[in-house]
Amino acid sequence: MKHPVPSIAILLVLFCISWRSASSQTSSHSGDAEGHQWWQHAVFYEIYPRSFADSNNDGIGDLKGITSKLDYLKDLGVDAIWISPCFPSPQVDFGYDVSDYENIDPMYGTLADFDMLTSEAKKRGIHVILDFVVNHTSDQHQWFLDSKSSRTSAHRDWYIWRDGKGPGQPPNNWVSTFGGSAWKFDPTTNQYYYHYFYAEQPDLNWRNPAVKDAMFDVTRWWYKRGVAGFRLDAVDTLFEDPNLRDNPIQKPGKNAFGDPFEEKKYNTKLPEVHEVLRGLRQVADEHNAVLIGETWTADVAELNQYYGQSNNELQLPMDFLFTMVNKLSPAEFRKQIAAVDAASGWPTFVISNHDIVRSYDRYGDGKHNDQIAKLMAALYLTLRGTPIMYYGEEIGMKTTPPTRQEDVKDPIGRTGWPKEKGRDGERTPMQWNSSENAGFTKGTPWLPVPPTYKTHNVADESKNSDSVLAFYKKVLKLRHTNQALLEGNYKAINEDDANVLSYLRTHKDQTVVVVLNMSDSPQKLNLDLKRNGFASANSLLSTAKSTAKGEEVQLEPYGIFIGQLIK
Ligand code: NOJ
Ligand code: CA
Predict the structure, then answer these.
(1) d(Cα 522, Cα 370) in Å, to the nearest integer?
(2) Summary count for the chain: helices (H), strands (E)
(3) What number does the ligand 1 atom closest to the CA of 135 have?
Protein backbone atom coordinates (compact mmCIF):
# COMPACT_ATOMS: atom_id res chain seq x y z
CA MET A 1 0.00 0.00 0.00
CA LYS A 2 1.36 3.40 -0.90
CA HIS A 3 0.75 5.74 1.98
CA PRO A 4 1.71 9.40 2.29
CA VAL A 5 3.23 8.92 5.73
CA PRO A 6 3.33 5.71 7.71
CA SER A 7 0.63 5.24 10.29
CA ILE A 8 3.24 5.56 13.05
CA ALA A 9 3.87 9.12 11.91
CA ILE A 10 0.19 9.88 11.77
CA LEU A 11 -0.24 8.57 15.28
CA LEU A 12 2.60 10.67 16.52
CA VAL A 13 1.36 13.86 14.94
CA LEU A 14 -2.08 13.60 16.43
CA PHE A 15 -0.90 14.56 19.89
CA CYS A 16 -2.21 17.91 20.87
CA ILE A 17 -1.57 19.55 24.20
CA SER A 18 -0.74 23.22 24.45
CA TRP A 19 0.67 24.76 27.57
CA ARG A 20 3.06 27.55 26.92
CA SER A 21 3.57 30.51 24.70
CA ALA A 22 6.60 31.49 22.70
CA SER A 23 9.08 34.32 22.52
CA SER A 24 12.01 35.71 20.57
CA GLN A 25 15.35 34.39 19.34
CA THR A 26 18.29 34.53 21.73
CA SER A 27 21.51 32.61 22.04
CA SER A 28 24.57 32.68 24.20
CA HIS A 29 26.87 32.52 21.14
CA SER A 30 27.27 35.70 19.22
CA GLY A 31 27.51 33.99 15.79
CA ASP A 32 28.60 35.85 12.64
CA ALA A 33 28.60 39.61 12.08
CA GLU A 34 24.84 39.53 11.73
CA GLY A 35 24.34 37.31 14.78
CA HIS A 36 23.63 34.12 12.85
CA GLN A 37 24.76 30.84 14.36
CA TRP A 38 26.63 28.22 12.34
CA TRP A 39 23.60 25.92 12.31
CA GLN A 40 21.44 28.60 10.71
CA HIS A 41 23.61 28.71 7.62
CA ALA A 42 24.37 25.00 7.49
CA VAL A 43 22.71 22.42 5.28
CA PHE A 44 22.23 19.20 7.26
CA TYR A 45 22.17 15.72 5.77
CA GLU A 46 20.79 12.67 7.54
CA ILE A 47 22.76 9.46 7.09
CA TYR A 48 21.16 6.13 7.95
CA PRO A 49 24.46 4.39 8.60
CA ARG A 50 23.34 0.84 7.80
CA SER A 51 22.49 1.99 4.30
CA PHE A 52 25.03 4.60 3.25
CA ALA A 53 28.33 2.94 2.32
CA ASP A 54 29.76 -0.44 3.30
CA SER A 55 33.56 -0.43 3.62
CA ASN A 56 34.07 -4.07 4.64
CA ASN A 57 31.49 -5.74 2.43
CA ASP A 58 29.44 -7.34 5.18
CA GLY A 59 26.32 -5.84 3.60
CA ILE A 60 25.89 -3.17 6.28
CA GLY A 61 27.07 0.41 5.95
CA ASP A 62 29.65 1.64 8.46
CA LEU A 63 31.64 4.64 9.68
CA LYS A 64 34.59 4.06 7.36
CA GLY A 65 32.08 3.97 4.54
CA ILE A 66 30.76 7.39 5.61
CA THR A 67 34.32 8.77 5.85
CA SER A 68 35.02 7.57 2.30
CA LYS A 69 32.08 9.66 1.06
CA LEU A 70 32.90 12.96 2.77
CA ASP A 71 34.31 14.44 -0.43
CA TYR A 72 31.05 13.62 -2.17
CA LEU A 73 29.08 15.32 0.61
CA LYS A 74 31.31 18.38 0.58
CA ASP A 75 30.98 18.69 -3.17
CA LEU A 76 27.20 18.32 -2.86
CA GLY A 77 27.04 21.26 -0.48
CA VAL A 78 26.51 19.57 2.89
CA ASP A 79 27.77 21.32 6.04
CA ALA A 80 26.66 18.91 8.75
CA ILE A 81 25.85 15.23 8.86
CA TRP A 82 23.40 13.71 11.32
CA ILE A 83 24.19 10.04 11.74
CA SER A 84 21.27 7.90 12.94
CA PRO A 85 22.28 5.77 15.94
CA CYS A 86 25.58 3.93 15.49
CA PHE A 87 26.02 2.93 19.16
CA PRO A 88 26.14 -0.66 20.43
CA SER A 89 22.67 -2.07 20.00
CA PRO A 90 20.89 -5.40 19.58
CA GLN A 91 19.37 -3.67 16.50
CA VAL A 92 15.77 -4.55 17.32
CA ASP A 93 14.88 -1.03 16.16
CA PHE A 94 18.04 -0.76 14.02
CA GLY A 95 20.01 1.25 16.55
CA TYR A 96 17.20 3.11 18.29
CA ASP A 97 17.64 0.53 21.06
CA VAL A 98 20.98 1.59 22.55
CA SER A 99 22.83 -0.76 24.90
CA ASP A 100 25.81 1.55 25.49
CA TYR A 101 25.67 5.30 24.82
CA GLU A 102 29.43 5.82 24.89
CA ASN A 103 30.69 3.47 22.23
CA ILE A 104 30.29 2.47 18.60
CA ASP A 105 28.62 -0.77 17.55
CA PRO A 106 31.28 -3.11 16.10
CA MET A 107 29.16 -3.50 12.98
CA TYR A 108 29.79 0.20 12.30
CA GLY A 109 33.43 0.25 13.42
CA THR A 110 35.27 1.52 16.48
CA LEU A 111 35.68 4.72 18.43
CA ALA A 112 38.94 5.20 16.51
CA ASP A 113 36.92 5.06 13.27
CA PHE A 114 34.57 7.62 14.73
CA ASP A 115 37.46 9.91 15.65
CA MET A 116 38.82 9.52 12.14
CA LEU A 117 35.41 10.40 10.71
CA THR A 118 35.11 13.56 12.81
CA SER A 119 38.63 14.67 12.05
CA GLU A 120 38.23 14.10 8.29
CA ALA A 121 34.85 15.85 8.43
CA LYS A 122 36.39 18.79 10.25
CA LYS A 123 39.06 19.15 7.56
CA ARG A 124 36.22 19.63 5.10
CA GLY A 125 34.24 21.98 7.33
CA ILE A 126 31.54 19.39 7.99
CA HIS A 127 29.99 19.13 11.47
CA VAL A 128 29.06 15.73 12.88
CA ILE A 129 25.76 15.37 14.75
CA LEU A 130 24.76 12.21 16.59
CA ASP A 131 21.34 10.80 17.33
CA PHE A 132 20.60 10.78 21.05
CA VAL A 133 17.92 8.29 22.02
CA VAL A 134 16.72 10.00 25.16
CA ASN A 135 13.41 8.31 25.89
CA HIS A 136 14.50 4.70 26.24
CA THR A 137 17.44 2.33 26.22
CA SER A 138 17.73 -1.21 24.93
CA ASP A 139 16.55 -3.90 27.31
CA GLN A 140 20.15 -5.15 27.04
CA HIS A 141 21.63 -1.95 28.48
CA GLN A 142 23.45 -2.61 31.77
CA TRP A 143 21.16 -0.11 33.47
CA PHE A 144 18.08 -2.13 32.54
CA LEU A 145 19.66 -5.52 33.22
CA ASP A 146 20.41 -4.31 36.73
CA SER A 147 17.01 -2.62 37.03
CA LYS A 148 15.09 -5.80 36.26
CA SER A 149 17.27 -8.01 38.47
CA SER A 150 15.51 -7.12 41.74
CA ARG A 151 13.12 -4.57 43.22
CA THR A 152 15.97 -3.19 45.29
CA SER A 153 18.67 -3.00 42.61
CA ALA A 154 20.65 0.23 42.21
CA HIS A 155 19.01 0.99 38.85
CA ARG A 156 15.49 -0.16 39.75
CA ASP A 157 14.09 3.37 39.65
CA TRP A 158 15.87 4.24 36.41
CA TYR A 159 12.92 2.73 34.53
CA ILE A 160 9.16 2.76 35.11
CA TRP A 161 8.05 -0.29 37.06
CA ARG A 162 4.52 -0.77 38.38
CA ASP A 163 2.24 -3.48 39.72
CA GLY A 164 -0.48 -4.69 37.41
CA LYS A 165 -4.14 -3.92 38.14
CA GLY A 166 -4.70 -7.58 38.79
CA PRO A 167 -3.49 -10.93 37.50
CA GLY A 168 -2.57 -10.56 33.80
CA GLN A 169 -3.72 -6.94 33.80
CA PRO A 170 -1.26 -4.14 33.01
CA PRO A 171 -1.24 -0.97 35.15
CA ASN A 172 -3.35 1.00 32.65
CA ASN A 173 -4.66 1.08 29.05
CA TRP A 174 -1.64 2.73 27.37
CA VAL A 175 -0.72 1.10 24.07
CA SER A 176 2.73 1.05 22.53
CA THR A 177 2.98 3.11 19.36
CA PHE A 178 4.57 -0.02 17.86
CA GLY A 179 1.61 -2.24 18.82
CA GLY A 180 0.21 -4.00 21.86
CA SER A 181 0.20 -2.92 25.49
CA ALA A 182 2.91 -0.44 26.49
CA TRP A 183 3.55 -2.59 29.57
CA LYS A 184 5.51 -5.80 29.76
CA PHE A 185 5.29 -8.15 32.71
CA ASP A 186 8.62 -9.34 34.06
CA PRO A 187 8.33 -12.50 36.15
CA THR A 188 11.66 -11.95 37.98
CA THR A 189 10.15 -9.20 40.12
CA ASN A 190 6.46 -9.67 39.30
CA GLN A 191 6.04 -6.13 38.01
CA TYR A 192 5.40 -4.49 34.68
CA TYR A 193 7.80 -2.07 32.96
CA TYR A 194 6.72 0.64 30.58
CA HIS A 195 7.81 0.91 26.92
CA TYR A 196 6.34 3.49 24.55
CA PHE A 197 8.07 1.77 21.61
CA TYR A 198 9.07 -1.93 21.39
CA ALA A 199 9.21 -4.04 24.58
CA GLU A 200 12.97 -4.17 23.96
CA GLN A 201 13.03 -0.37 24.42
CA PRO A 202 12.13 0.27 28.08
CA ASP A 203 11.43 3.93 28.87
CA LEU A 204 13.87 5.67 31.16
CA ASN A 205 12.46 7.32 34.25
CA TRP A 206 13.41 10.95 33.69
CA ARG A 207 11.90 11.88 37.07
CA ASN A 208 14.92 10.22 38.65
CA PRO A 209 17.75 12.81 38.92
CA ALA A 210 20.35 10.05 38.49
CA VAL A 211 18.95 9.31 35.01
CA LYS A 212 19.14 12.96 34.10
CA ASP A 213 22.73 13.27 35.31
CA ALA A 214 23.84 10.13 33.48
CA MET A 215 22.19 11.19 30.24
CA PHE A 216 23.52 14.75 30.41
CA ASP A 217 26.98 13.27 30.92
CA VAL A 218 26.58 11.26 27.73
CA THR A 219 26.27 14.48 25.77
CA ARG A 220 29.36 15.95 27.48
CA TRP A 221 31.29 12.79 26.64
CA TRP A 222 30.52 13.13 22.93
CA TYR A 223 31.03 16.90 22.85
CA LYS A 224 34.56 16.30 24.12
CA ARG A 225 35.01 13.91 21.21
CA GLY A 226 34.17 16.65 18.74
CA VAL A 227 30.48 16.15 18.17
CA ALA A 228 28.69 19.36 17.15
CA GLY A 229 25.26 18.50 18.45
CA PHE A 230 22.49 15.95 18.65
CA ARG A 231 19.25 15.09 17.04
CA LEU A 232 17.08 14.20 20.04
CA ASP A 233 14.93 11.17 19.37
CA ALA A 234 11.31 11.00 20.49
CA VAL A 235 11.36 14.00 22.83
CA ASP A 236 7.57 14.05 22.97
CA THR A 237 7.53 10.86 25.01
CA LEU A 238 10.02 11.64 27.79
CA PHE A 239 7.54 11.93 30.65
CA GLU A 240 4.40 10.12 31.73
CA ASP A 241 1.62 10.97 34.13
CA PRO A 242 2.84 9.77 37.56
CA ASN A 243 -0.73 8.69 38.35
CA LEU A 244 -0.86 6.59 35.19
CA ARG A 245 -4.35 7.76 34.25
CA ASP A 246 -5.91 5.82 31.37
CA ASN A 247 -5.71 7.53 27.99
CA PRO A 248 -9.04 8.54 26.41
CA ILE A 249 -10.12 6.63 23.32
CA GLN A 250 -9.98 8.96 20.32
CA LYS A 251 -12.35 7.23 17.93
CA PRO A 252 -13.91 3.81 17.44
CA GLY A 253 -12.06 1.08 15.53
CA LYS A 254 -8.59 -0.42 15.58
CA ASN A 255 -5.25 0.69 14.14
CA ALA A 256 -2.91 -1.41 11.95
CA PHE A 257 -1.75 -3.33 15.02
CA GLY A 258 -5.30 -4.10 16.19
CA ASP A 259 -5.10 -1.60 19.06
CA PRO A 260 -7.68 1.06 19.93
CA PHE A 261 -7.05 4.62 18.74
CA GLU A 262 -5.87 6.39 21.88
CA GLU A 263 -5.32 10.03 22.49
CA LYS A 264 -1.85 9.95 24.08
CA LYS A 265 -2.94 12.47 26.63
CA TYR A 266 -1.12 11.11 29.65
CA ASN A 267 2.09 9.78 28.09
CA THR A 268 3.25 12.38 25.56
CA LYS A 269 4.19 16.05 25.62
CA LEU A 270 4.06 16.49 29.36
CA PRO A 271 5.33 19.94 30.41
CA GLU A 272 8.21 18.42 32.38
CA VAL A 273 10.04 17.75 29.13
CA HIS A 274 10.90 21.44 28.84
CA GLU A 275 13.03 21.49 31.94
CA VAL A 276 15.10 18.63 30.53
CA LEU A 277 15.45 20.39 27.19
CA ARG A 278 16.59 23.59 28.91
CA GLY A 279 19.21 21.58 30.76
CA LEU A 280 20.44 19.82 27.64
CA ARG A 281 20.57 23.17 25.87
CA GLN A 282 22.73 24.66 28.63
CA VAL A 283 25.26 21.88 28.13
CA ALA A 284 25.02 22.28 24.34
CA ASP A 285 25.64 26.02 24.62
CA GLU A 286 28.88 25.36 26.48
CA HIS A 287 30.05 23.61 23.31
CA ASN A 288 28.46 25.84 20.65
CA ALA A 289 26.44 22.77 19.72
CA VAL A 290 23.03 22.40 18.14
CA LEU A 291 20.01 20.43 19.32
CA ILE A 292 17.63 19.19 16.65
CA GLY A 293 14.34 17.74 17.82
CA GLU A 294 12.16 14.95 16.58
CA THR A 295 9.07 16.96 17.39
CA TRP A 296 5.71 15.75 16.11
CA THR A 297 3.72 18.88 16.76
CA ALA A 298 0.07 19.46 15.95
CA ASP A 299 0.58 23.13 15.05
CA VAL A 300 3.11 25.94 15.19
CA ALA A 301 1.97 26.95 18.67
CA GLU A 302 3.16 23.57 19.85
CA LEU A 303 6.35 23.89 17.84
CA ASN A 304 7.02 27.19 19.61
CA GLN A 305 6.99 25.39 22.93
CA TYR A 306 9.98 23.37 21.80
CA TYR A 307 12.01 26.48 20.98
CA GLY A 308 11.48 27.45 24.61
CA GLN A 309 10.06 30.62 26.13
CA SER A 310 13.38 32.43 25.73
CA ASN A 311 14.60 30.30 22.86
CA ASN A 312 16.50 28.29 25.40
CA GLU A 313 15.42 24.78 24.40
CA LEU A 314 15.81 23.26 20.92
CA GLN A 315 17.40 25.42 18.24
CA LEU A 316 16.01 23.24 15.48
CA PRO A 317 12.74 21.49 16.32
CA MET A 318 11.76 19.83 13.06
CA ASP A 319 8.57 21.10 11.46
CA PHE A 320 6.95 17.83 10.43
CA LEU A 321 3.77 19.68 9.54
CA PHE A 322 5.63 20.59 6.37
CA THR A 323 5.96 16.87 5.54
CA MET A 324 2.20 16.56 6.01
CA VAL A 325 1.52 18.76 2.99
CA ASN A 326 1.29 15.68 0.86
CA LYS A 327 0.25 17.22 -2.41
CA LEU A 328 1.73 19.84 -4.68
CA SER A 329 -0.60 22.51 -3.45
CA PRO A 330 0.70 26.11 -3.50
CA ALA A 331 -2.10 27.13 -1.12
CA GLU A 332 -1.22 24.50 1.47
CA PHE A 333 2.51 25.13 1.25
CA ARG A 334 1.90 28.89 1.51
CA LYS A 335 -0.11 28.34 4.66
CA GLN A 336 2.42 26.05 6.27
CA ILE A 337 5.45 28.16 5.31
CA ALA A 338 3.79 31.32 6.64
CA ALA A 339 2.97 29.56 9.90
CA VAL A 340 6.49 28.31 10.53
CA ASP A 341 8.02 31.56 9.28
CA ALA A 342 6.11 33.31 12.04
CA ALA A 343 7.31 30.80 14.67
CA SER A 344 9.31 32.04 17.60
CA GLY A 345 12.55 30.39 16.45
CA TRP A 346 14.50 29.61 13.30
CA PRO A 347 12.54 27.25 10.97
CA THR A 348 13.77 23.74 10.17
CA PHE A 349 12.62 22.09 6.97
CA VAL A 350 12.56 18.38 6.27
CA ILE A 351 10.86 16.55 3.42
CA SER A 352 12.08 12.97 3.95
CA ASN A 353 13.61 10.81 6.67
CA HIS A 354 14.02 7.20 7.76
CA ASP A 355 10.48 7.00 9.16
CA ILE A 356 8.40 8.46 6.35
CA VAL A 357 7.79 7.70 2.69
CA ARG A 358 10.39 9.52 0.57
CA SER A 359 9.40 12.85 -0.94
CA TYR A 360 10.11 11.44 -4.42
CA ASP A 361 7.05 9.19 -4.03
CA ARG A 362 4.90 11.52 -1.97
CA TYR A 363 4.96 14.23 -4.61
CA GLY A 364 5.89 12.34 -7.79
CA ASP A 365 3.06 11.84 -10.31
CA GLY A 366 4.73 8.83 -11.94
CA LYS A 367 5.50 10.83 -15.09
CA HIS A 368 7.45 13.90 -14.02
CA ASN A 369 9.06 12.54 -10.86
CA ASP A 370 12.55 13.89 -11.54
CA GLN A 371 11.21 17.32 -12.41
CA ILE A 372 9.08 17.29 -9.28
CA ALA A 373 12.08 16.21 -7.17
CA LYS A 374 13.91 19.30 -8.47
CA LEU A 375 10.87 21.44 -7.72
CA MET A 376 10.80 20.21 -4.12
CA ALA A 377 14.54 20.86 -3.80
CA ALA A 378 14.02 24.38 -5.13
CA LEU A 379 11.33 24.82 -2.50
CA TYR A 380 12.85 23.63 0.75
CA LEU A 381 16.38 24.71 -0.07
CA THR A 382 15.36 28.31 -0.77
CA LEU A 383 13.19 28.92 2.27
CA ARG A 384 14.24 30.88 5.35
CA GLY A 385 15.44 28.20 7.72
CA THR A 386 17.74 25.24 8.03
CA PRO A 387 17.10 22.33 5.67
CA ILE A 388 17.78 18.74 6.69
CA MET A 389 18.24 16.51 3.68
CA TYR A 390 17.88 12.73 3.76
CA TYR A 391 20.46 10.56 2.02
CA GLY A 392 19.50 9.63 -1.52
CA GLU A 393 16.96 12.41 -1.88
CA GLU A 394 19.50 14.30 -3.98
CA ILE A 395 19.54 11.53 -6.61
CA GLY A 396 15.79 10.93 -6.64
CA MET A 397 15.77 7.71 -4.62
CA LYS A 398 12.41 6.08 -4.43
CA THR A 399 10.67 4.31 -1.56
CA THR A 400 10.78 0.58 -2.26
CA PRO A 401 8.81 -1.34 0.36
CA PRO A 402 9.02 -5.14 0.59
CA THR A 403 6.37 -7.01 -1.35
CA ARG A 404 6.28 -10.08 0.93
CA GLN A 405 5.80 -10.11 4.68
CA GLU A 406 8.66 -12.60 5.09
CA ASP A 407 11.11 -10.10 3.60
CA VAL A 408 10.27 -7.31 6.04
CA LYS A 409 13.09 -6.28 8.38
CA ASP A 410 11.41 -3.49 10.34
CA PRO A 411 9.42 -5.22 13.13
CA ILE A 412 6.42 -2.89 12.83
CA GLY A 413 6.12 -4.03 9.22
CA ARG A 414 5.90 -7.64 10.33
CA THR A 415 3.35 -7.07 13.06
CA GLY A 416 1.35 -4.45 11.16
CA TRP A 417 1.34 -6.25 7.78
CA PRO A 418 -0.35 -5.59 5.41
CA LYS A 419 -1.68 -2.22 6.61
CA GLU A 420 1.69 -1.15 7.99
CA LYS A 421 4.60 -2.41 5.86
CA GLY A 422 7.22 -0.81 8.03
CA ARG A 423 10.01 1.55 7.10
CA ASP A 424 12.33 -0.65 5.03
CA GLY A 425 11.21 1.09 1.86
CA GLU A 426 12.79 4.42 2.75
CA ARG A 427 15.97 2.84 4.18
CA THR A 428 17.31 1.00 1.14
CA PRO A 429 21.05 1.22 0.27
CA MET A 430 22.41 4.42 -1.20
CA GLN A 431 22.76 4.19 -4.96
CA TRP A 432 26.33 5.13 -5.80
CA ASN A 433 26.69 3.71 -9.31
CA SER A 434 25.18 1.26 -11.77
CA SER A 435 27.39 -1.67 -10.82
CA GLU A 436 26.09 -4.61 -8.80
CA ASN A 437 24.39 -3.54 -5.54
CA ALA A 438 24.65 0.05 -6.71
CA GLY A 439 28.25 0.19 -5.46
CA PHE A 440 26.97 0.12 -1.86
CA THR A 441 28.58 -3.23 -1.00
CA LYS A 442 30.29 -6.18 -2.62
CA GLY A 443 28.51 -8.43 -0.12
CA THR A 444 24.80 -9.05 0.25
CA PRO A 445 23.08 -5.78 1.16
CA TRP A 446 20.99 -5.93 4.35
CA LEU A 447 18.04 -4.59 2.35
CA PRO A 448 17.65 -5.14 -1.39
CA VAL A 449 18.84 -2.37 -3.69
CA PRO A 450 15.86 -0.96 -5.60
CA PRO A 451 15.94 -1.55 -9.38
CA THR A 452 16.03 2.23 -9.92
CA TYR A 453 19.77 2.23 -9.16
CA LYS A 454 20.33 1.72 -12.88
CA THR A 455 18.85 5.11 -13.69
CA HIS A 456 19.31 6.97 -10.41
CA ASN A 457 22.79 6.81 -9.01
CA VAL A 458 25.53 9.25 -8.06
CA ALA A 459 28.05 8.28 -10.76
CA ASP A 460 25.69 8.61 -13.71
CA GLU A 461 23.87 11.66 -12.41
CA SER A 462 27.20 13.39 -11.82
CA LYS A 463 27.82 13.23 -15.56
CA ASN A 464 24.39 14.50 -16.52
CA SER A 465 23.84 18.24 -16.18
CA ASP A 466 20.08 17.71 -16.25
CA SER A 467 19.93 15.17 -13.42
CA VAL A 468 18.27 15.56 -10.04
CA LEU A 469 21.75 15.49 -8.47
CA ALA A 470 23.04 18.24 -10.76
CA PHE A 471 20.06 20.39 -9.77
CA TYR A 472 20.60 19.78 -6.05
CA LYS A 473 24.24 20.84 -6.43
CA LYS A 474 23.26 24.00 -8.26
CA VAL A 475 20.60 25.05 -5.81
CA LEU A 476 22.84 24.28 -2.81
CA LYS A 477 25.64 26.31 -4.36
CA LEU A 478 23.30 29.21 -4.94
CA ARG A 479 21.97 28.96 -1.39
CA HIS A 480 25.47 29.05 0.07
CA THR A 481 26.56 32.05 -1.94
CA ASN A 482 23.46 34.20 -1.88
CA GLN A 483 22.86 36.26 1.27
CA ALA A 484 19.19 36.75 0.46
CA LEU A 485 18.66 32.99 0.37
CA LEU A 486 20.75 32.40 3.47
CA GLU A 487 19.26 35.02 5.70
CA GLY A 488 16.67 37.07 3.89
CA ASN A 489 13.16 37.43 5.15
CA TYR A 490 10.33 35.57 3.44
CA LYS A 491 7.39 37.19 1.71
CA ALA A 492 4.72 35.34 -0.24
CA ILE A 493 3.60 36.99 -3.50
CA ASN A 494 0.80 36.14 -5.97
CA GLU A 495 -0.96 34.51 -3.08
CA ASP A 496 -4.11 33.69 -5.03
CA ASP A 497 -2.34 31.61 -7.64
CA ALA A 498 -3.62 28.02 -7.43
CA ASN A 499 -0.80 26.58 -9.54
CA VAL A 500 2.33 28.56 -8.86
CA LEU A 501 4.02 29.16 -5.52
CA SER A 502 6.02 32.41 -5.54
CA TYR A 503 7.91 34.22 -2.84
CA LEU A 504 10.58 36.82 -2.25
CA ARG A 505 13.62 36.50 -0.03
CA THR A 506 15.09 39.87 0.88
CA HIS A 507 18.27 40.71 2.70
CA LYS A 508 19.27 44.38 2.91
CA ASP A 509 19.11 45.65 -0.69
CA GLN A 510 19.13 42.23 -2.30
CA THR A 511 15.94 40.38 -3.25
CA VAL A 512 15.56 36.97 -4.83
CA VAL A 513 12.29 35.71 -6.27
CA VAL A 514 11.44 32.00 -6.30
CA VAL A 515 8.67 30.88 -8.67
CA LEU A 516 7.60 27.24 -8.64
CA ASN A 517 5.04 25.76 -11.00
CA MET A 518 3.34 23.00 -9.03
CA SER A 519 1.10 22.02 -11.93
CA ASP A 520 1.52 19.79 -14.98
CA SER A 521 0.65 22.56 -17.41
CA PRO A 522 2.67 25.56 -18.60
CA GLN A 523 2.00 28.71 -16.61
CA LYS A 524 2.38 32.39 -17.34
CA LEU A 525 2.14 34.93 -14.55
CA ASN A 526 2.74 38.52 -13.73
CA LEU A 527 4.89 38.97 -10.65
CA ASP A 528 3.66 42.51 -10.08
CA LEU A 529 7.22 43.46 -9.20
CA LYS A 530 6.57 47.20 -9.30
CA ARG A 531 4.48 46.86 -6.19
CA ASN A 532 7.68 45.71 -4.46
CA GLY A 533 9.84 48.39 -6.11
CA PHE A 534 11.45 46.28 -8.85
CA ALA A 535 11.30 46.20 -12.64
CA SER A 536 12.45 42.72 -13.64
CA ALA A 537 14.22 39.55 -12.61
CA ASN A 538 17.51 38.09 -13.82
CA SER A 539 17.58 34.32 -13.74
CA LEU A 540 19.93 32.78 -11.18
CA LEU A 541 18.77 29.22 -11.63
CA SER A 542 15.89 28.05 -13.79
CA THR A 543 14.68 25.00 -15.63
CA ALA A 544 15.17 24.90 -19.42
CA LYS A 545 11.92 26.52 -20.54
CA SER A 546 11.23 28.82 -17.62
CA THR A 547 12.06 32.47 -18.24
CA ALA A 548 11.23 36.00 -17.15
CA LYS A 549 10.70 39.13 -19.19
CA GLY A 550 9.98 42.31 -17.31
CA GLU A 551 7.37 41.39 -14.73
CA GLU A 552 6.23 38.31 -16.57
CA VAL A 553 7.39 34.77 -15.93
CA GLN A 554 6.69 31.76 -18.11
CA LEU A 555 7.11 28.33 -16.65
CA GLU A 556 7.08 24.88 -18.18
CA PRO A 557 5.12 22.14 -16.31
CA TYR A 558 6.76 21.85 -12.88
CA GLY A 559 9.12 24.58 -14.01
CA ILE A 560 11.35 26.56 -11.67
CA PHE A 561 12.47 30.17 -11.91
CA ILE A 562 14.81 31.64 -9.30
CA GLY A 563 15.89 35.17 -10.12
CA GLN A 564 17.60 38.24 -8.74
CA LEU A 565 15.28 41.24 -8.74
CA ILE A 566 16.52 44.41 -10.33
CA LYS A 567 15.20 47.95 -10.15
C1 NOJ B 1 12.02 7.84 16.28
C2 NOJ B 1 12.99 7.27 15.29
O3 NOJ B 1 13.14 8.16 14.22
C4 NOJ B 1 12.43 5.92 14.87
O5 NOJ B 1 13.14 5.40 13.79
C6 NOJ B 1 12.45 5.03 16.07
O7 NOJ B 1 11.85 3.80 15.74
C8 NOJ B 1 11.70 5.66 17.24
N9 NOJ B 1 12.00 7.03 17.44
C10 NOJ B 1 12.03 4.94 18.52
O11 NOJ B 1 13.32 5.26 18.93
CA1 CA C 1 30.09 -2.90 6.81
Answers:
(1) 17
(2) 16, 21
(3) 11
